[in-house]
Write a structure and sequence with these properties.
Layout lengths: L4 H31 L3 H12 L6 H18 L1 H24 L3 H4 L7 H28 L4 H7 L10 H25 L3 H9 L4 H30 L2 H6 L17 H8 L11
Helix pairs in contact: 1-8, 1-10, 3-8, 4-6, 8-10, 9-10
Amino acid sequence: KYSFVPLAFGTLKAAFYAMLISVPLAIMAAIYTAQFMTTRMRRVVKPGIEIMEALPTVILGFIAGLWLAPLVEHNLAGVFLLLIAIPGFILGFGYLWQTRVPASLRHRFPEGWESILLIPVVVLCSWFIFSVVGPLFEHWFFSGSMSTWLREGLHIPYEQRNAVIVGLAMGFAIIPTIFSIAEDALFAVPKHLIQGSLALGATSWQTLSRVVLLTASPGIFSAVMIGFGRAIGETMIVLMASGSTPITSLNPFEGMRPLSVNIATEMPESAEHSTHF
């Protein structure tokens, strides 16, 4: 009854899915912001992402539990299609921009402002997948509902508040922390190392992968560890979005109960000096 295993497993499960979503996005965003973005845009983007950290986690958990969880359940196929479609649309747009758009038009946009062009691409792609392709995909392949098909067709339990919802919400909360520290570490790489690499004939990508990342790796590692520590200790998001189910299951569509949630919910009702306490 008082086993520690479901609580430890739930803590690691929640942190794993949060880091799975936040680490790639935060580090890649930090790389682009520090090394490729123009100074003018960086002065707007970096504070804008850092101010996301001021959002109260209780509000993020409330939104995740009451709005995001039903939305994902009713558009589960669209969520998975977005993971494939958005990178594909971005790569396709980049290819067309480099090969099909006249050079006279491309040169009107200064180097480092490419991300502005991708904003409408990502927005239109997301709307198209969620509004058109996702519902059709679920109707054709999953009898109208992918979550119901998982429950009845594959006998895989699906709870509305699960590890995927926790990962999305808590990952969103961790991104500013990892981004800010990693971006500072990347931006602090001495300019003479970058200029020397470029002067010797290396491309910008070779300079990034073989000079910048190696030099900034201690700072990036610190950013990931601090983000992981916050994911381990987060309470309100997982309390509202995890279902608070004390089970040991690898299924990402089932909930969990992390240790922090158990302390928050059961500490007030436990008798002092008891086994429960």
